[in-house]
Specification:
Layout: H1 9-21, H2 24-39, H3 47-54, H4 59-81, H5 89-109, H6 113-141, H7 147-160, H8 162-176, H9 178-212
């Protein structure tokens, strides 16, 4: 059992960073969350503009988008509660990140309100699946002595990066328009999933190489 001495907040962050350097799988998930929080998840800040500009709606239309997003997140949470022990969370994260990007692209393409509401729910469903799976993976795979420190980086990657992402998203939408911004965000989500897929493939190849040369 590893015992970590009492330390201040800065020392805890330093120790957590050193632990993450020794735990590439946990680090890769925190990186995914950070990029998602910067480039994909802030789509929620565009929903009022989506309701008003893309569908000529009002406050009621925006409430439908909010309800669709909440419903999707709730279904995602229920699906996480049904998670079976031993399931490979990293592949669940991979598919959730990919479908979040695809759903955003489809939301940008949607011409009818019902389809846009459906894709909004799909984005929130995928977001809940991704973030909850990352949280669960860290909680179950981090060393107990460093679990809180790893979770602090999870919180920073999610809640700390999200406001910056919202600011960038708003600036891009002001220049390129709502629809083009959604396309860009969806494309970024797909690229994030592709990058994680390449990482997983390289990890599998390294494991096979080590196994063959034992």
């Amino acid at each position: 059992m590893v015992i970590v001495p009492n330390e201040n907040a800065f020392q805890g962050l330093v120790q957590g960073f050193k632990y993450l350097k020794r735990s590439p799988h946990i680090t890769s998930l925190i990186i995914i969350l950070a990029f998602s929080s910067l480039l994909v998840i802030p789509y929620t800040s565009l929903l009022p503009a989506v309701a008003r500009e893309l569908f000529q709606g009002n406050e009621r239309t925006f409430s439908w988008f909010e309800s669709a997003a909440g419903l999707g997140a709730m279904i995602g949470a229920i699906n996480m509660a049904r998670l079976k022990s031993g399931e490979n969370l990293r592949y669940r994260i991979l598919f959730a990140a990919f479908f979040m990007g695809v759903a955003l692209v489809l939301l940008a393409y949607a011409h009818y309100l019902p389809s846009a509401l459906f894709f909004t729910g799909a984005v929130s469903f995928s977001m809940m699946m991704q973030n909850s799976s990352i949280n669960t993976y860290i909680q179950t795979h981090a060393m107990p002595a460093y679990r809180a420190r790893a979770m602090s980086y999870y919180v920073m990657a999610f809640q700390g990066i999200f406001p910056i992402g919202s600011l960038i998203t708003g600036a891009i939408a002001e220049i390129l328009g709502i629809k083009n911004t959604l396309y860009i965000m969806g494309g970024c989500g797909i690229l994030i999933a592709l990058g994680f897929y390449i990482y997983l493939r390289l990890h599998i190849q390294r494991r096979l190489f080590k196994f063959n040369f034992r």
